[in-house]
# Entry
Amino acid sequence: ACSGCITSAETVMLEKQSLDEFISNIDKGKAVIVSVSPQSRASLAVHFGLTPLQVLRKLTTLFKTLGVKAVFDTSCSRDITLIESCNEFLRRYKENKSSGADSLPVLASACPGWICYAEKTLGSFILPYISTVKSPQQTMGAVVKHHLAKLMDLRVDEVYHVSVMPCYDKKLEAVRDDFSFQFDSPRDASEVVTLTEVDSVLTSGEVLDLIQLKEVDFKGLEESQLDTLMTNVDQHGNLYGVCGSSGGYAETIFRYAAKELFNLDVKGPLDFKIIRNADLQEVTLDVDGKIVLKFALCYGFRNLQNVVRKIKSGKCDYDFVEVMACPSGCLNGGGQIKPGAGQTAKDLIQVLETIYMEKVYVADPFENPRVRKLYEEWLEQPGSKKAKKYMHTEYHPIVKSITSELHNW
Ligand code: SF4
# Structure
């Protein structure tokens, strides 16, 4: 989805994120950890005619047979992202209302296609509006490398962390400098090693390639126990998470803000109204006949450009916008498995939307026991110094080099 240019350094790092590299790191004896996105398990579920839970169990069998140490679920780290986003929204909303700060709208930050476009094409005016919270992929990366590695008694430079995503732009996200950190080599005190939170991203389609490459009868695979350490599964073995094909940001923050700011419990599904097309929807909260919250879902570049134009001209009255570069959001990402014979892209997205939520129970991220434990033993409070250090990031306007505009420089 990213329309910006990719630098040669990025190209080299992207080439490293392949199936060959994944298998060679297992062969090298690295402690390989795989984190699977809910959109990818839905894509595989549709392809194989299975449920998302069956897919996650069978993927666990497949990866562990290959030598992977643990398989996690990015719905779990997404809950940290949502909690931090709720906290950030409240702060920025209050700043705006109390002192007129130009802190709204908050624009979601989970889509690297959008971030790349904002940095490379829109530049500095838009960046302060973007939420500083990392995406679920990168929050999982931070949890694995900065916390779980220690709990699992692994040295962080021995861990190779792979995420399975619906999207090629997630590969670009993983190689951002903001998501790398320094580690003192235990072999040589003078040597400092640079490590990344996520070492490699495989798309849903590339996992299907792996299944075919290894000639695995995926449907016939045994269903393993899930690694519950970072997976949204309850004691009865059911998956849980929030709704929304791209993570449910607008929905979760809206309910949270209604409760915290206006003491209102918003029950039942939110009343999103379609504006112009299904990829631009709005929901409002009225108090005493006055609109106090106005949120939007904004998917696809055309809608995104309209919202950006409104922000630039000071005419945007949204408080929060869930921005996603792909029409229909992440279920329709470029890394998903392609439609089958005789199936249109539109048919596929409809099936995906149904399967995505099949037997996945809606749950409040603040009640997630694994995430609560992470705050208790590590992150302290939402928005704490530690949470800011590990779960937030920053953005940089990218000035195109003048050489790109000079022939044969
Ligand atoms: Fe990737 Fe598309 Fe989702 Fe953005 S909307 S994160 S580009 S799949």
Notes: The mean pLDDT is 92.
